[in-house]
UniProtKB/TrEMBL annotation, chain A:
A biological process from GO: Arp2/3 complex-mediated actin nucleation
Keyword Transferase set for record: no
Keywords annotated in UniProt: Actin-binding, Cytoplasm, Cytoskeleton, Repeat, WD repeat
Family note: Belongs to the WD repeat ARPC1 family.
Lineage: Eukaryota, Fungi, Dikarya, Ascomycota, Pezizomycotina
WD repeats: 50-82
Localization terms from the record: Cytoplasm, Cytoskeleton, Actin patch
Role summary: Functions as component of the Arp2/3 complex which is involved in regulation of actin polymerization and together with an activating nucleation-promoting factor (NPF) mediates the formation of branched actin networks.
Pfam families listed in its UniProt record: WD40
Protein name listed in UniProt: Actin-related protein 2/3 complex subunit
GO cellular component, one term: actin cortical patch
UniProt source species: Karstenula rhodostoma CBS 690.94
Automatic annotation (TrEMBL), chain B:
Database matches in InterPro entries: ARPC5, ARPC5_sf
Species classification: Eukaryota, Fungi, Dikarya, Ascomycota, Pezizomycotina
Subcellular location(s) per record: Cytoplasm, Cytoskeleton
Species of the source: Karstenula rhodostoma CBS 690.94
Entry-linked SUPFAM superfamilies: Arp2/3 complex 16 kDa subunit ARPC5 (SSF69103)
Protein name: Actin-related protein 2/3 complex subunit 5
Amino acid sequence: MAPPDVHHLFHHPIADHSFSADRQTLAVARDNVVDLFQRSDNKYTLQDELTGHDKTVTGVDIAPNSGKIVTCSQDRNAYVWEPTPEGWKPTLVLLRINRAATCVRWAPSETKFAVGSGARLIPVCYFEEEDNWWVSKHIKKPIRSTITAVAWHPNSVLLAAGSTDGHARVLSAFVKGVDARPEPSAWGERLPFNTVCGEFLNNTAGWIHSVAFSPSGNALAFAAHDSTLTVVYPSAPEEPPSAVVSLSTQVLPFMSLVWSTESEIIAAGYNCEAYRLQGDENGWQLAGSLESKGRPGVQDSREESALNMFKQMDLKGSTKDDTKLKTVHQNTISTIRSFEESDGQVTKISSTGVDGRVVIWTL
Amino acid sequence: MANVNWRTINVDALDPDSPANFDLSSLAPSVAPVSTADVQSLAGQIRQLLRGGDNAGALQGALENPPYGADAQGKDVHLATVIEILQSIRQADMSPILSQIYSSPGGTEALDVLMKYIYKGMAQTNAASSTRNITPQATGFSQVHARGGGEGGSQAMSVLLSWHEKLVEIAGPGSIVRVMSDRRTV
């Protein structure tokens, strides 16, 4: 297994990150700006800065085909940035929310995107040709608390949303005139806007950090603050799901998750390392960490001179530098995303966290 | 209007969509109400097991039936039962019993319940010993603790602390996080 590709960008937490389709441009949310980094010679150099938000940016997403960047922030606004010869041109999106926006994701069709917010609703935004403006429709019911995570189904109509009320929901975000009628699936047949296709809650009901559909869209996974991972397998529309598998882990909660195949999830969070989880409808289990423990070079073990050793003993009372974690990330991992895929399998993932590092892992 | 301190107006109460205006219990998984009499009869059965020397069985039985739906009195009865079991198990037997529960079906759930009782027990012994240790004069610090109450409290605490240590070894910090985020309290 190739060692992880580590880049320390800056000493600030990274709330969210996104790579362009060619993986040469990296957008990271840093405080109230979005930094665009360009890859050259295996290094990331700061290329551009998207300024416009006046509060912390909470989400950034690059559409793979059109290259448009959508950002959202605690200032309750979202912008769509389009590349022009003069630079990035922002367009304000009318979210109509009175609380912070918490997360944003493009639909796979790239004609619309969903924004999670603290106003207990999800604005689903699409481009109105007539007015030349991004407008939003609100998914309101039955959300009772802040939306912390959104994820799209591959059909671009169904939306999964995780909330601080402990529920993960599957909702329809069908917009007339923008979407084609979706194929019926196990989640539902007729899907007008704001149809609730499922509401899921596990026993401990911790608030949700991350939701994700499996590659086929026929399963939903969510990670909550009770250190659990729950996977829901729907059976048929309007029927209870055929299986809800909840795995209580021994580690600290997961903040983000990615399906690598239909039977494997990569999850990372407060433990500062990424874990591999495997299973199916009959049960899930933690298969292990992506880190190889005790790998040389993680702890930079320098040759210590005797003088230096006694100096350290005198200054700190110990010769070991125990201020570093044994993991690659030195703080909570907040986002992981698929970096490279082949034959429908994710082969590489990228992770960013509170420590300002971006790491690319080979699975 | 000038007299109204508008900063103290509870705006959430005026907003029909506000979270203050809906039933929060609908957000959490529902729990069936349990009467105190039921908790007491369960405690009797568990004591029977304990007298028979089946400590592990008693602990498992107590952890599999936490009275989430009981009132404060019923919860206290069950807490007393669990603490009694914990105190009657020798230190050397703790880890084997915990591993046995962990590997049984529903084991992580049972250990999470145990963690809840350990924290609740700690909170209780603290409260009990601190009320007994209040000195009449407000001296700011007290050198001598009231011996009797403090001794009993610290002994119960040391039992709970060693259980906590053993439990974290097996169930991990995930169990602690679950206790904090779970709305079903013991």
